[in-house]
Amino acid sequence: MKKVFTFFVTLLITATTFAQSPEKMGRQAVMRDSSDNVVNNQTEKEEALLTIEAKFIDFHLGDASHYTFEDVSGNYWDFSRSNSKNFEFSRLLDEAEMNTDNQGWGSAKELQGKWFTISYSFEERPLYQDGPMGTVKTIQEAELIEKEEALLTIEAKFIDFHLGDASHYTFEDVSGNYWDFSRSNSKNFEFSRLLDEAEMNTDNQGWGSAKELQGKWFTISYSFEERPLYQDGPMGTVKTIQEAELIEKVSNKNKANSMFSLESSIMKEPLERFVYSGNKSPDGSVELISEPIDPTSNKIIIKSALSSKTVEGVYLSPLKNYWSENGKYVILDNVDTYAGSGTYSIVLLNVESLKYVSIDMDQLFEGVDVGDREMLYVKNIVWLNDQSFFIESYVGYLGYSGHPGIDTNLKNKLGDKFANTDDIVTLPTRKYTIK
């Protein structure tokens, strides 16, 4: 009978231990003074709490507790403990969900994705079980708030829709940059359409572009979402159209931010002149900086000893920057091969006025039969003088884009020409003069 009683006592102790929230499972310390009297470890004066507004992402229990939140700027916050009386962000898992990795604990699913005002403090605690002491962030209070995610906006022209192993809504902005959206929640416009039976094939999978919207301009409000990157693929961040508003806009990239224009002609005999590329101007007085603003676009900053200015309307990450000899102009050379686009864009920028003009890439192909070749390569950009330059380029076949579904379609279309870098067509050298 004594053994049976001992067994039930052991069960009771175990159940009591596992019923505690994760952060209460650590060792409990009792502080005593030099006379061996128990000391209350709460000070009379409480520290002021810090606050943030953040979205609850998840909870996981490793060798310490981790309450993960994301604030409005996209910064992640890792709290080691929660004393919130209103919300339990962690939950004891059902027996079927328990394993050695989660140690029986997971996230409160009904709170994930919701926004809170989090009041927190810093405390001195073990950094992990049986670990050294350190400073950790502790949630003291949590208040649920209604908050809509801020949407980003662009003005862009609808190019097309195609369905591969994922959806692709393609738009082009005023700078000639292409935007690939993976989903559209627009209630006003359907950019995709179900094709007629005669148009359907294995490549388009029965879906195509809404022809009446192609070439029209929209204000696109979009957000980033965590979704599978393609069918049965890994999770990743994708751009989703949330709202679309039709706007009247002249389809001319150069009108957006230009106080100069370019005159183009073909050069019969190119001459070597000034070639200088880099992030800094030839005399080193001006620096061009490309900083990411989201996973797919960058902002351009022109920095000198006296100022640092952002170029409005140019969102790319140049491969090379070709400077004029006087440092007044710089040509940004950019290529995008994601999703098989093979899209090239070249922007001429006046670094003093921050005005720019996008070069019409179709001009480089004029009068040349390139067949199925779509991948443009710029061999060189050479300045003849401070007002004129020429571009040497060639075109080849598209290759690997990093997008499995589109790569499969390209291989089926091109056969042994896929990613063939030897079979190229040299394009005429074209001269441009700044007016």
What does this structure look like?
The chain is mainly beta and 435 residues long. The chain has three domains: 101 residues, OB fold (Dihydrolipoamide Acetyltransferase, E2P) (Beta Barrel); 100 residues, no CATH class; 146 residues, no CATH class. The protein is 6% helix and 43% strand. The chain is built from two helices and 28 strands. Strands 3-2-1-7-8-4 form a six-stranded mixed sheet, with no helix packed on it. The N and C termini lie far apart (103 Å). The N terminus is likely disordered.
Short note summarizing the structure:
With 435 residues, the protein is mainly beta.
State the low-pLDDT regions, or none. 1-19, 24-35, 38-46, 250-256, 337-341
Main sheet characteristics: 6 strands, mixed
H/E order of the elements?
A: HEEEEEEEEEEEEEEEEEEEEEEEEEEHEE
Q: What is the strand content?
A: 35-45%
Helical proportion?
under 10%
Helix-and-strand structural type: mainly beta
Radius of gyration: 30 Å
Form type = globular
Total helix count? 2
The largest beta-sheet arranges its strands as 3-2-1-7-8-4
Number of domains: 3
**DSSP E strands, number:** 28
pLDDT averaged over residues = 79
Q: In angstroms, what separates the terminal alpha carbons?
A: 103 Å
